[in-house]
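Hi L., both proteins are below.
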Amino acid sequence: GWGTAWQGSGDGGAVDLPELEDTNDPLAVALFDQVTLLAAFGGRIDDPVDRVADGAEIVSMQVVLDDPEAFVRGFYYPSTGGVVRVVFASMFQLDTPDVDAMVASIVVEGHRVP
């Protein structure tokens, strides 16, 4: 199905977005967030949605938004209650050793970024 979301740039109108149908799939949630952010704020994919390592269940992505100008980097962990999102937003690049160190310290039901 399709839902409607506020568009943060341009004429301020609404855009049609896919609905998130599987809240237990980190890949589906990350793709949904990526599409939603880019549709609402404009921008580009900086780091496409992908697993953090071969065989890992954790997924990550990064986009650069146009309006407001910002980097958004997300990590998506599987859990029994649905996907756990860990999202960073900044005016500066987030693909850094500092952010990597913070993410490496996060453990969700035994899942951690290698």
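That was the first. Here is the second:
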Amino acid sequence: MKKAMLSLIVILALSSISGNAQINSDLAQVTLQNNTQYDLCLYVDNKNNLVCGPASGNGGFCVSNVEPGSHVLIVATVDGTISASTDPVNLNQGDSKIVTATIGSDSQLKVSVN
């Protein structure tokens, strides 16, 4: 009886994991890598659409899933006083993109996508 119950639990757990993997593969993943001294948030298409954050300054990061499509990615300080954005980025189903925030030689916030 214990073996049957354990087998059932394992089967249910594996079913749950594979089901979640299928759902997540329908989305695109974005990661904000914060290489600035500021706490930053990542937005998609406008500052009302928070994706993740805040990511702590000096190496913090956050990860989230977004709907596939063409999106402008916006990185901004928590209070919104400093921000930078990308040109439209095509995020395909299953993609995993890293948005890196740095401070340029001109002391301005810079973002790049890889």
